[in-house]
Amino acid sequence: MHAYRSHTCAALTAANVGDTVRLSGWVHRVRDHGGVLFIDLRDHYGITQVLCDADSSAFAELEKARSEWCIQIDGEVKARDESLINPKLPTGEIEVYVRSLEVLGASEELPLIVFGDQEYPEETRLRFRYLDLRREVMQENMKLRSDVVASIRRRMWDSEFREYQTPIITASSPEGARDFLVPSRQHPGKFYALPQAPQQFKQLIMVSGFDKYFQIAPCFRDEDPRADRSPTDFYQLDIEMSFVEQQDVFDTIQPVLTGIFEEFGGGKVVDQDWPQISYRDAAKWYGTDKPDLRNPIKMQDVSEHFAGSGFAIFAKLLEQDGTEIRAIPAPGGGSRKFCDRMNKFAQGEGLPGMGYIFWREKTADAVAQELGIKVKEAQAKLKSGEVEGGMEAAGPLAKNIGPERTEAIRQQLGLKIGDAAFFLGGKPKVFEAVAGKARVAIGDELGLTDLNRFAFAWIVDFPIYEKDAETGKVDFEHNPFSMPQGGMEALNGDPLDVLGYQYDLSCNGYELVSGAIRNHRPEIMYKAFEIAGYGADEVNKRFGGLVNAFQYGAPPHGGCAAGIDRIVMLLAEEANIREVIMFPMNQRAEDLMMNAPSEPMSDQLMELGLRVIPQE
């Protein structure tokens, strides 16, 4: 028999009854039934119930076993009584009577319990991650991650891509985040950097004549943490192709991701239609460039209905350049109680509130006022059907702008009795983010968001440049390496009108993919950087390797990168990315388990020619 096990803890069935077996694993749970000990023995594959009574020579030793002891047992497989069969376990028809026991690794008192669903502070979970990872949900998340990566690789190979590895130690390259610098011992005073992405290398692979590249690539960025972003490192499916246009990239990645979400999505609907929405429309309709299309609410510009209206706040606001009023429709939100709740939400986001209108059946008071009769008489006429009630608009805004404008807003938004609309105004860049959050909150509160779907959308036509409102300086708003739509001719016009062949893919409110058709023409690249105030010398200094390569017959090329961590987070239905990373940092970019970052030894600093200046 094998030194440690003849079977895993998920392998035994009724067909093994009578067999002598050896199992190894962790004590998951102990139950003492007065002279009979039952232990759920757990390994990576599952759980087997083992038992022991006072007649067994192993009883005295097994009595000492506690949760998370690692043990090995030899015993005989027995059939469970029919009334005790556990259909939820693959091993639920049997149990193993213990004949002998060896303790492979005893455990001290546990800082967190593996059995059950107890909640622990994240700091505790990360400090004792090896225990946290023993929990069933974490085991399943990590298996899911591994299976997703394996499936991605198969699908990329099936699409005639080959995987190539790019350097982990390279030159510093500003790509939108801070680099992690690595001091060089052999070149004192100089530093390498960990790559923020394999961006330049994968483009150089295309220049080198390789037609299709992919890599499950580690990326390193010194970033502030968020729930959906690691503060230090992450993995992405990195793709690049030669002789392609934007649609070719879309057509390549869509079947790969569709297949992954269908394979691992737990039966949720995977949308097959991936709309292409311009960056500006996404901001206007959804308040974000990563919209959650499971929520059907689409915001609209209703400025014309407030211009010159009796609602002075909005009317005066619209007299300023670059301002507008946006409406957030709320089908089914037509009650004062709901409107008050959403106002409270807006106040939590730092706003004084949101204007609102809701539509309801006309009240007897309104009919009485309209017809010049008493309320009781109006009630009688409504009850008898002599007078049709119809609808009325309610709320402070409705009173200020009057029935004609209110009705025009209702018709534009396609609303009816029982619905509402909320309003925000100002310069779009100032209020769009809050409007986007409000849209999500309204959809969630009213149950409009379809939680059983994966809804994808390509966000396209990103502007390359933006102008600083205070200094008037033009700088890059998005990826400076994207090919401008219209090439050199576009760069000779107004920079703020220049759009790039750049694109993101959103899914359920998260950015999953980012990419572009690359600017492979040196003369266009120099011009693009010149507009943003970067001279040719600076471009050569920062990106010399890439620019030099483009002098020697660079092919048109493009690609994208898909975030592995976020994909798995969505599939695992987790809200925090650290739940799908095996050994993540905490929110302060610390590894509590390995005590990183740590202070270097003095001889290490001397060898590198470095000195740490204490911060005051």
Tell me the overall shape.
globular
Helix content: 25-40%
Low-confidence stretches: none
Q: Which strand order spans the largest sheet, edge to edge or round the barrel?
A: 6-9-10-26-25-24-19-12
Share of residues in strands = 15-25%
Query: Helical segment tally?
Result: 19
> Which class of secondary structure composition applies to the elements?
alpha+beta
Count of distinct strands: 26
The termini sit apart by: 64 Å
How much is the average pLDDT? 92
For the sheet with most strands, the description reads: 8 strands, mixed
Rg of Cα set: 32 Å
Explained architecture:
This protein has 616 residues and is α+β, with helices and mostly antiparallel strands. The strands form seven sheets. An eight-stranded mixed beta sheet has the order 6-9-10-26-25-24-19-12, with helices on both faces. Strands 1-2-3-5-4 form a five-stranded mixed barrel. Strand 7 (180-183) and strand 8 (191-194) form a beta hairpin. Helix 4 (136-158) packs antiparallel against helix 6 and helix 11 crosses helix 12.
